[in-house]
Automatic annotation (TrEMBL):
It comes from the Bacteria. NCBIfam families: PRK15446.2-3, PRK15446.2-6. This is Alpha-D-ribose 1-methylphosphonate 5-triphosphate diphosphatase. Residues 275-371 form the Amidohydrolase-related domain.
Length: 376
């Protein structure tokens, strides 16, 4: 159906919820309070903007469900796609890490995944984009990262440093062992590799500055991950990083918000009632105005569940909760044509039955006006 209407649903408009028909034509939202063409009855359901996920790596479980067990990228991408649209996610940034580690997060593997996304983009239901998480000590792969950014639409480049913590012995032993296992190396060989990488630390800051400049030139959106201080946020701000992902201190998050910048935390944190690794409590941060975006992080059902949990527990109303997973992440990524239900925007929509607020159910998902998931 290229032209159709959705009627009788509670539609989330910029001003709030209204029971009005909306008309979709040629993949766009063509009109509010008007109906034409085929009709979809959304009685008893919310009609919401599709979820925009700017930071997710749950696809890695489809690539490597167990250590040393690998599946081809095409299989993993299409299985991930089914999970995304069934959970109401209409735009997904796959967080692909470029690290000095061999294996799943190596440059070669990330390039292979980016090529697979490009080959399969037209056959994937969810609009699937690339979020390159560049480990700042991966100095030898900087040029390759820039080449990928040039070829990917609406790309995100995030600056990550998971090396310093490991090199200084501050990484938890079990996490360090998991990193070695993921890289396919014995623990002593992985430790020696960390030491060799750490020896080049004087080259890191100049390379970050160069990468930021070049990435902006090719139109990528810049983010900074795991910022540990206000000073670090200010430094990355000056380099053009527009938002702070998973800041490590409330002061860092407060500085970002004071400058009108978005702060990204994990939706699973809200669903579980706290961080699994002792990081910032996302629900408290939302209450205090220190978090404006929730991402899937490692679990695709989490944004939908988090929005309704925040509503159910009175942290905020559903309209404000939904901004955390649709409007605001679209702003982070510079995707001005999605994230809200307004004429002229892409018809990325989901119908949600929340009769049971603990278990909201996606009944239908539309991406650019095409129904890609149907449980009506």
């Amino acid at each position: 159906m290229s032209d159709f209407s959705i009627v009788n649903g509670q539609v989330l408009l910029p001003a709030g919820f209204e029971e009005v028909p909306i008309r979709i034509s040629d993949g766009l939202l063509a009109g509010i309070d008007e109906a034409a063409g085929n009709v979809i009855d959304a009685r008893g359901a919310y009609v919401l903007p599709g979820i925009v996920d700017v930071h997710g790596d749950a696809f890695e479980r489809n690539l490597m469900p167990r250590p040393k067990v690998h599946f081809p990228p095409e299989i993993a991408l299409h299985e991930t796609d089914r999970q995304l649209v069934s959970n109401g996610i209409t735009t997904a940034y796959h967080g692909l890490t470029v690290s000095w580690e061999p294996g799943l997060r190596s440059f070669g593997h990330t390039r292979e995944m980016c090529e697979a996304i490009a080959r399969n983009r037209k056959t994937l239901s969810c609009d699937t984009l690339v979020h390159l998480r560049w480990e700042t000590f991966a100095l030898d792969d900087a040029e390759g990262v820039l080449e990928i950014l040039e070829d990917q639409p609406h790309a995100i480049l995030a600056f990550n440093d998971h090396t310093t913590k490991s090199a200084l012995g501050k990484e938890k032993p079990h996490k360090f062992a998991q990193m070695a296992q993921r890289a396919g190396l014995p623990l002593d060989e992985f430790r020696a590799l960390v030491e060799r990488v750490w020896a080049r630390r004087a080259d890191v800051e100049p390379m970050i500055a160069r990468m930021a400049r070049r990435a902006r030139e090719v139109g990528a959106t810049l983010l900074a991950h795991d910022e540990a201080s206000v000073e670090q946020r200010r430094w990355f701000r000056n380099l053009g990083a527009l938002a702070s992902e998973f800041p490590l201190t409330p002061e860092t998050a407060a500085d970002a918000r004071a400058h009108g910048e978005h702060v990204v935390l994990g939706a699973p944190n809200v669903v579980r009632g706290g961080s699994h690794n002792g990081a910032t409590d996302a629900t408290a941060a939302i209450s205090e105005g220190l978090c404006s975006v929730l991402a899937t992080d490692y679990y695709y059902p989490a944004p939908l569940l988090a929005a309704f949990k925040l509503t159910r527990e009175g942290v905020c109303d559903l309209a404000n909760a939904w901004e955390l997973i649709s409007k605001n992440p679209a702003e982070v990524a510079g995707l001005s044509g999605r994230g809200t239900i307004e004429p002229g925007k892409r018809a990325d929509l989901i119908l949600v039955d929340a009769t049971d607020m603990h278990h909201p159910q996606v009944k239908a998902t539309f991406v650019a006006g095409k129904k890609v998931f149907d449980r009506i």
